[in-house]
């Protein structure tokens, strides 16, 4: 299992235009989690690598989704199952949703 380079830029969370907090809990096998800048720079590799183990919490906050991408790279030496639970805050509600009036206060 792997997750390719991406930003969590879904409209629901508005992570490219305002502060956005995403909290994740990893359970199971330890996996690498990498971050890189959101624009190409072939001359230098600024990739940052973390290890997310069983029970680890990871947060991505502020404007991280605008400026950085993240991924969980393929690692052939890793075996065993892993799940990652995430908590995200919906800030863009459908028109007519009772929460939409509060969303941008
Ligand atoms: O599995 C992870 O640690 C990250 C998953 C992820 O990037 C996502 O759900 O958007
Ligand atoms: Fe993600």
From TrEMBL:
Transmembrane annotation, as ranges: none
GO molecular function: dioxygenase activity
Organism domain of life: Eukaryota
Annotated Gene3D superfamilies: Alpha-ketoglutarate-dependent dioxygenase AlkB-like
GO biological process, alphabetically ordered: DNA alkylation repair
Fe2OG dioxygenase domain: residues covered: 1-91
Cited InterPro entries: AlkB-like (IPR027450), AlkB-like_sf (IPR037151), ALKBH3 (IPR032854), Oxoglu/Fe-dep_dioxygenase_dom (IPR005123)
Protein name (Swiss-Prot/TrEMBL): Fe2OG dioxygenase domain-containing protein
Source organism (scientific name): Effrenium voratum
């Amino acid at each position: 299992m792997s997750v390719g380079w991406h930003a969590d830029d879904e409209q629901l969370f508005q992570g490219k235009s305002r502060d956005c907090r995403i909290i994740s809990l990893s359970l199971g096998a330890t996996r690498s989690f990498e971050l890189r800048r959101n624009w190409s720079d072939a001359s230098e590799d600024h990739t940052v690598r973390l290890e997310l183990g069983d029970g680890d919490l990871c947060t991505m906050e502020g404007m991280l989704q605008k400026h950085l991408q993240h991924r969980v790279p393929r690692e052939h030496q890793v075996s065993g199952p892993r799940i990652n639970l995430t908590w995200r805050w919906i800030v863009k509600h459908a028109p007519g949703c009772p929460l939409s009036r509060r969303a941008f206060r």
